[in-house]
Every structure is written in structure tokens, then in C-alpha cells.
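Each field is listed here:
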Amino acid sequence: MQLKLEQLDGHLARGLRPLYVVHGDEPLQAQEAADAVRAAARAAGHGERQVFTVAGSHFDWSAVLGAAQALSLFADKRIVEIRIPSGKPGKDGSEALQRYCERLPEDLLTLVTLPRLDGQQLKSGWFAALDAAGVCVRVETPPRAALPAWLAQRLARQGQRVKAGEEGQRTLAFFADCVEGNLLAAHQELQKLALLHPAGELGFEQVEAAVLNVARFDAGQLGEALWSGQVARALRILDGLRAEGEAAVRVHWLLADDLRALARARAALDRGQPLPLALREARVWGVKEKLFERVLPLLADHQLAHLLAAASVCDGVCKGLRHPEWPAEAWDALRRLALLVLQAAASKPRRLALPA
């Protein structure tokens, strides 16, 4: 049974299932989801707790299977936690988890915690067994667009709120820019506001004075900002990646890979392929598919050729080669390439040629 994170509290209030799986790459929300399950279990009388951390290929799964069948010495009901930090239980673990799910006793609540899983792991036999036996909760970092609402909800929990109207929206937008990609730090900044100011309304100046810029980015977010035409955010992400010590070569490779995919899709369109099929042929899926659906009609062949040539020059700069018309420093060259992409993404739509 799949459950959204925001549905978990309501579900727990209605009663417990024998098994819960929390998986995802957002540490704050994963921790809070697991804590909510533990609290509900303790309230239901599960007083004894055993924790197993699966580390390496030589983990003894017989201890986990034995814990499911053992009688409690100190409490009527128990909690068994199985933590798999790698997300890969292995062949023995896969078989053990499937057997474990077949033998869940009534006095036991099992909590399995996992990192973010890929498509193959989500389709595996062991994960299907966990899903069938209990409740799976997937935790993910809120996208930038949802972050202001997330912050407002967290402020409301501690009795605080921003001002109504445009000033409040500006305050939340500023707060979101400071903590994007780092919810653990966002939680700390929220707690700081609770300590510094009483319950009630917060002005922009109060938030600006208290909140540190603790935003963290990954290189994949840069492409999303560029192809969405978000100039300020794209440049902020680029500066953030540079400050965090990200390799310029890797950032360039991801951006150049997007350009190559767009060129393949453009060629497929010019051969008469419909847009969805052209993107699929270019191996574009997920979030990028929606972004490229918007940007591809904006780009002509000569624009993509120009961007690919610029990416080639930038590649050389990132690897130590100089070019007389480009900055000598890798990150300055990446900034120039990013601005060229943003300029192209902001151009007027061109009419797509329809197949005869």
C-alpha cells in the first residue's frame, strides 16, 4: 500500500498496520516519518524495540527472521526496525525479506527504512513483498515551487505566520531561496525564529535578519532552472555549486548532455516525428520531458548548433584549454554558457513543421 507523506498522520490515527516502509533521500522528512510510526507504535503498547542495520553482504539475516518469531521478555508488543542504508539487501536479504513478510506475528510492528530507490529496486520481489504486507511511504525533497507553502505550514505549527499579501509572499520566497535543497537546515532556521520571536506575525525584516543562507543544490537542478527560463535561480544555483566545491567538468557534462538530447529530438522532429515520440527517441523522460516539450519548439537547428559549439569550447576551458574569446576560468565559462542557454530558452516560439 502506497501512502503519501502528508497522509501518514491521518492513517496512523486510524490504526496501525503490521509493517511500514519509509524510503527516500530527504533526511528530515524520513526521520519525521519514522518518528511518527514509532510514536504511534509506543502509544499502541509496543514497548520493546530491536534495531538491525544491514551493512555489507555478510549480514546475518537469520537474526532478523528469529526476531520476528521470538517471544518478548519485557513487553506484550514489540517494534523491529530494519535499516538498509544501501537500499540493496542482496540475494539472501531479498529472500529473507520475502519470508519475513509471510510470517508477521500480531504483536510485532516492523519499520523498514531505505534510501531513495531506483525503478529496478521498486519493481523487485523483496520490495513488492514489503508493499503487499504493509504501508510504503516515499519521502522526497519538496520542489522549489512548493517550498514557500511548506515553510508557511511549519511556521503555523509553532504559532507563527508571515504577513498577508505581497509582503508575506516576498518573505516566504526569500526564506525558500535561503534554504532550498537543505530541509534539515530549514528546520533549524525555523526553530531559530521560534526562539527569537514570540508567536504571531513575522515581518520580512525579522526573517531576513534571522535566516542564514544555507541553500544546497545539486547539478541536476541547474538544467531544470535553465530550461524553465529562470535566470536568477539558475545563476544562484551555479554560484551555489561553485561554492560547494562541485566539479565544473561534471556540471558541464550534464548541461552538454541536455543539449545533445535536444539536438537528437530536434532531428527527429525534422524527420516528421511527433513531439512525444521525438523526445522518447532522444531518451528524455520524467521532469526533463515536460521541460523539453516547452523549450524544443523555441529552438531552431542553427541555435542548437551554436549552443553545441559553445558547449564544446566550454568543455575545453573546463579541462584547462584556453580560448581567445572565452573566459579562462571554468566557472566563468559555465556562466557564459548558461546565459547563452537562457537567452535561447527565452526566444519566441518557432512554428513546428507538420509531417506531410
The chain has a mean pLDDT of 87. The longest helix spans residues 248-270. The beta strands are 2-3, 19-24, 46-53, 77-83, 108-114, 135-139, 160-162, 200-202. The first strand starts at residue 2 and ends at 3.
